[in-house]
Amino acid sequence: MAGTRSLLGIVVVIFGLLAFIGSTHAQLQLNFYAKSCPKAEQIVLNYVKQHIPNAPSLAAAFLRMHFHDCFVRGCDASILLNSTTGEKNAIPNGTLRGFAFIDAVKSLVEAECPGIVSCADILSLVARDSVTITGGPFWEVPTGRRDGRITNVTEANNQIPGPFDNFTTLLTNFNNHGLDITDLVLLSGAHTIGISHCPAVSPRLYNSTGPGGIDPTMDSEYAENLKANKCRTPNDNTTRLEMDPGSRKTFDLSYYTLLLKRRGLFRSDNALTTDTTSLALIRQLLSSPPQFFFDQFAKSMEKLGQINVMTGAEGEIRKQCALVNS
């Protein structure tokens, strides 16, 4: 009997250790600030409601910022830090915008509850609220993230998915961050409200193996139109491009429809049609009611927002989002 009790004790200890190991993710919870800063989420939402309708394109910008943040050291707001060797200086982040907006929200929250609410949570909430306010899906954002102290340009260049990635590279990267093929297809759907610039597509228009240098996997009419009206030279670094032409302001399924017409802007967009499972997921989305896309996108966003989060006593709560605490 004593031996049985001893064995049970070992089992309890083992389960306790396992629970502790997994607790960093479990500590994120809905309404984490309900007692410590009960108005926090409403302050964020109010600011978004006040400003995003006047600048709806920021919804895509914040969604992208949140995504890029989570893919480097997890969702720790390291992308917000000012540093000559930080993530802001990485090639994929060169066109990010909206940092002053995040700083403004942080200032309002700090005025209400100094040192309580993390920049990582503020960025996560702003991304969600901005998309929802502009007609996109809603997803739950459990809070309790802590802010990171390290930002590294090399890590960002290596870990953020690129516009020229093939399917294998994309899926491996997503898998390395705890995401699967379904998440890859769904999160790529954020390109329905996306904006890009010519450098991300010019090699497909001028330096590929098809006639006139056009990528043979791209619809030739679409490519010629881009060359004639948008990226008129291979060296255009400034012209902005809609990733979902004609439907950029609407969070919808049009992006996937374009993929099947070989009209995805990036090589990485087209890559989603080169895998049988991915292609089947796209067809399933297109054959389902729009709400199905919203619901599935929400689930993938909830997974994204919990990548390698710091909680408890890890990291810090920054006083200013662009600076680590002194």
UniProtKB/TrEMBL annotation:
Q: Which domain of life is it from?
A: Eukaryota
Q: What is its main location?
A: secreted
The cofactor note from the UniProt entry for this protein is: Binds 1 heme b (iron(II)-protoporphyrin IX) group per subunit. Binds 2 calcium ions per subunit.
Could you tell me the keywords of this UniProt record?
Answer: Calcium, Disulfide bond, Heme, Hydrogen peroxide, Iron, Metal-binding, Oxidoreductase, Peroxidase, Secreted, Signal
Which reactions fall under this protein's catalytic activity?
Answer: 2 a phenolic donor + H2O2 = 2 a phenolic radical donor + 2 H2O
Per its UniProt record, what Gene3D superfamilies does this chain match? 1.10.520.10, Peroxidase, domain 2 (1.10.420.10)
Would the keyword Iron be found if you checked this record's keyword annotation?
yes
- Signal peptide range equals 1-26
Localization, per the record, is:
Secreted
EC number(s) in its UniProt entry?
1.11.1.7
Q: What is this protein called?
A: Peroxidase
Q: Which organism is it from?
A: Hibiscus sabdariffa (roselle)
Ranked from the top, the taxonomy reads: Eukaryota, Viridiplantae, Streptophyta, Embryophyta, Tracheophyta
